[in-house]
Design goal:
alpha/beta; 5-stranded parallel sheet; single chain; Oxidized Rhodanese, domain 1; 37% helix; 14 helices; 313 residues
Length: 313
Amino acid sequence: MELARAQYASIQRLLTLPASTGVWPTHGAGSFCSAPAGAERVSTIGHEVATNPLLAAPGDENTFVTRLLAGLGTFPPYFHRLGELNRRGPAVLHGLPTLAGLDAAAVGSAVSAGARLIDVRPLAEYAAAHIGGSVSIPLRAQFATWLGWLTTPTEPLILVRDPDQDPQEVLGQALNIGHENLTAELAGGVGAWTRAGGATISTRLVHPGELTDTASVLDVRQRREYLDARLPGATHTELGDIAAHPALIPADSTAQPTVLMCGHGERAMSAASLLEAAGHQNLSVLVGGPQDWALSTGRDLATGTDTDTAGLP
């Protein structure tokens, strides 16, 4: 609330500038740090006055603050602590640390002692075979966001990756959000685990054209994404809520096949991994999102009018 009022005061000063003054937004559409906005990378004061709904609001501070806060969605828990961490200053590193390589037996012992496995392999590889209880967070631009959303900064984390994935990229993203608890990896990856006699499980992938009308679909995207366009009959629970409260999805809800979906499949697989770890069975993941389903089936998406949060890929 305090920052929203400060932003109102800042905007009032900016609006005194000439209409041609250039504006370079600090956050793109879909950012946790901004209310819904266009995807333009460059704007002007005049363009914003003419098109920005927040500036079209009556010119009083309270109305601006109400509308601004209504446009913000949920955000990762690490946002609560990064402000203070940035004020204190992070630990100074003279290069990225290295991960200790643990064999399958050592990893099994660490997991028994409370460590979590973070599997960063692509969606299809995780689906084909993964270690039970591991959390799927595919390595991509959004990796750090979901690492900070689905894990805590204090629990020991062990990396599971493909040989061609750079552990330094994983470490760099983790350290950017203050996660210093990723200190080891499974040497040799899932292949070494299975060669040592370790068990794996798989998660079924469903393509849009294979989805039947009787399927139970759980959409784990942000609320605004779900309300903007969704599969008819799909229910909704955000991935972040599943991570915080797996019991939100009752165990008996998976007695019938449940298809988890998001925008592409990565978040859905993360949700599947969390629910599998909590004991749920008969889960599958949709490869693709609502638009893929609409194109594949030629059918219309259900739509809504509420646009109160920003979305994520």
